[in-house]
From TrEMBL:
InterPro entries assigned to the protein according to its UniProt record, in alphabetical order: CHP02678
Top-rank taxon, per record: Bacteria
UniProt-recorded name of the protein: TIGR02678 family protein
Source species: Effusibacillus dendaii
Length: 406
């Protein structure tokens, strides 16, 4: 269980710090349950009105609080590859996850059932839709097992006895006894009309009150509100958004309203904003927090920090050695990128993990480029060019040697 942090200072300062902590928890967890984290659940309930109003007005998020859990319904401002479920391998996993929820919605609270009953019901239902699932196929069972594992992680499915991984390996020779949770019906976002009635992805990601058939009212500034909500969603959810990644109207809003945006993000989320040449960037100043931050705990982040420091040292000696584009992105050839990694491995490889030491320069480059892309710090463009975004070049990593510390 996470413990609630105790904050010094006066009443107003303490209340604001509690509000920020509750907001961060809502943003970074699927939900907060009374059973698992009663202190945070009480904290959210005590600040319910302020949290509900701020998230609705600024981001178009709905806050749901029941007697047993609190959930913030988050909507992407812009779809990103890292918003996927990392353990899922393809569309079948997502489909079986959704049909798992379909099955659970028909179960009563704490009702027990067998895995064999669940998979047979899903298979029969899909057969009625002319979709064939064959549980004798290992790949189909493996997809179902991944979906079931995610349902368990979300606490909407409780395993009383057995493991779905055994069923995935052996098929009908194994079974699992499950227990249903009433939270299953709250996992997927609810829409005011049938999904087939929507004609574009923009409609699907709009907040619920913008999906209603009422016409836009100029007096309420609904168009401005929609734009503002989308901007806040991107600033809250994405690690970096550069000026050139905003549509024209949104970019003008960010540039003209930056002081207000910075104030709002600081007051509610404790994120510090600063205007740079490439855009409005937000950072988290505390060493602890609910969100995932860059650099991550993964070794790839350490190597990227080291890479950024090395490129900065190269540029200090020869400022014009690498080309830049009109957005200020640094352009390296793939050969230059791999060459720098090879030199870093030669100098510092003893401090790297065995997996990173043994990778070829090409495979290591692929891994680090994927990490860059995930954090919107760079990408590979075409076959021969690696593009490093300006935010990446604001990092500077090096190893702290013992003699330096002394």
């Amino acid at each position: 269980m996470r413990r609630i942090r105790k904050f010094p200072g006066g009443t107003q300062e303490r209340l604001r710090a509690e509000l920020q902590q509750a907001a961060q928890a809502l943003l970074n967890r699927p939900w907060i349950t009374k059973r698992k984290d009663p202190e945070m659940f009480v904290l959210v309930k005590s600040h319910y009105e302020k949290l509900r109003d701020w998230f609705h007005d600024h981001a178009g998020f709905s806050l749901i609080v029941t007697r047993s859990f609190a959930k913030l319904e988050k909507i992407p401002g812009s779809w990103q590859p890292w918003m996927r479920i990392e353990t899922f391998h393809g569309p079948r996993d997502y489909a079986l996850f959704a049909y798992g929820l379909w099955y659970l919605e028909g179960r009563g609270e704490a009702e027990q059932f067998l895995l064999s009953e669940m998979v047979d019901a899903i298979r029969d239902h899909l057969l009625s839709l002319d979709v064939n699932l064959d549980w004798t196929l290992y790949e189909h069972r493996l997809s179902m097992a991944r979906a079931l594992k995610k349902l368990r992680e979300l606490e909407v499915l409780v395993a009383v006895e057995g493991e779905e991984s055994d069923w995935a390996r052996e098929g009908g020779n194994h079974n699992v006894l499950y227990e249903a949770s009433p939270m299953a019906r709250y996992v997927l976002r609810r829409f005011p009309k049938d999904l087939t009635a929507y004609e574009s992805m923009e409609e699907l990601i709009a907040p619920a009150d913008q999906l209603l058939p009422a016409a836009a009212d100029p007096a309420t500034g609904s168009d401005v509100q929609a734009r503002r909500q989308k901007i806040f969603r991107r600033l809250i959810q994405e690690p970096v958004v550069y000026d050139w990644q905003w549509p024209d109207e949104e970019r003008r809003y960010v540039q003209t309203q930056r002081s207000w945006l910075i104030e709002q993000m600081r007051n509610m989320l404790n994120l510090e904003g600063r205007r740079f040449r490439e855009g409005l960037l937000f950072t988290w100043t505390d060493v602890t927090g609910e969100m995932e931050l860059f650099p991550t705990l993964a070794g790839e982040s350490d190597l990227l920090m080291l890479l950024a420091g090395e490129i900065r040292r190269i540029l200090h000696k020869n400022p014009g050695i690498f080309e830049k584009d009109e957005q200020g992105n640094l352009l390296l050839t793939r050969a230059e990128f791999e060459g720098i990694l090879s030199r870093l491995k030669e100098y510092h490889g003893d401090y790297w993990s065995k997996g990173h030491r043994e990778k070829t320069s090409s495979l290591l480059a692929d891994e680090l480029i994927a990490h860059l892309r995930e954090w919107n710090l760079g990408m590979q463009e075409g076959v021969h060019t690696v593009k490093l975004y300006p935010a990446f070049m604001r990092w500077n990593g090096t190893y702290g040697w013992k003699e330096q510390a002394e």
